[in-house]
Amino acid sequence: MSIYLDSAATTRPGEACIAAMTEAMRISWGNPSSLHRVGLEAQLRMECARGQLAAALGCEPSALIFTSGATESNHLAVRGAAGAYGKRKKKVITTTVEHASVRGAFDMLEEQGFEVVRIAPDADGILRAEDIAAAADENTCLVSMMLVNNETGAVLPVQQTFAMIAREYPHIIKHCDAVQGFLKLPVSPEKLHADLLTVSGHKVHACKGVGALYRKKRIRLFPLMKGGEQEGSIRPGTESVPLIAGFGAAAAELSETVTARAEYVGNLRSELIAGLEKAGGISVNSPSDGSPYILSFAVRGLRSETVLHFLSEKGISVSSGSACSKGKQSGVLEQFGVKPDLADSTIRVSFCAENTPEDVTALCEALKEAQERLVHKR
Ligand code: PMP
Questions:
Q1: Which of 18, 242, 297, 357 is 20 to 30 A from residue 132's alpha carbon, by CA?
Q2: CATH code of 344's domain
Q3: pTM value?
Q4: Which residue range forms the structural domain that includes residue 339?
Q5: How far is CA 359 from CA 2, 105, 206, 349, in A?
């Protein structure tokens, strides 16, 4: 039995992606900057993918910069915007629940002398738009917040926050890490009032090692690297046409079914919550209005690793938090108000449309068995 319930960590590349990548490697293998026919073929393939991705985001193709993934996109957005706009305005704002890559980028800014304001959720574990917007002032150059938290699935009030900030301080650059929302929920940088927006290939059935950064027209970025003139000189280095082609194909395929898939996995999530309630001994960490793709819960009395390994033995793959921290606690759950002992017992289940109700039933049965076999032995 093999049941994969860790799609927030990564997803299986889809057939559309594999076909596009294979074709790009066979046919469009040239350097897209070369001026001859072989280069042109690669460039056309890449621009086709840029168009597919732009259509999925509802933006101009020229607004997209291809990168090696969301970690790079986040660094380019945060450090690149601070580099371009932070000469005199030294204040930057983010939240305490961001992905490690955004947290890391802000830590680097702090080391460079920026004043970093990190807004935490309130006593109810909710991040309030007013709290984030209230931190903004004349001296602020950048605000960055994620759309969907990768550990709990909490959906942050990005649109509301960015609209409030745009109204009062139109000079502030607004970045959103939309990795866990893109092609799972309707995501439009324009509707979110985002100047910069991060997406990643491998979370949406494309390959690892490719991502993109949406950059609104006229928003400047200080490049992280200097080199060739690829991607408007903002991201130098020969583009990986096969990875990009696969990303575009995956986006084109998935953008047709965003709402239907969200509804489908939302039903799986509801079934899982019902199954967990029936089993007892479980506390749900995720908010009820969170992303339909993610459910975080604690199996009381058992450590995450114990449950994870027990499930893994049964062929069920889940996560204990985020994969990037290799199972180590990131502290984000506590920020959302999860008590430390429950954080230590937390399991994250994340869905994709390939999952079935049978997967949920098997997981619930395995969890019940884990509780019966392991809890009393402690
Ligand atoms: N941001 C979020 C919210 C994520 O979930 C992840 C992946 N765990 C990343 C950024 C980093 O993505 P990548 O692996 O493409 O660098």
A1: 297
A2: 3.90.1150.10
A3: 0.97
A4: 3-11+257-377
A5: 9, 37, 23, 11
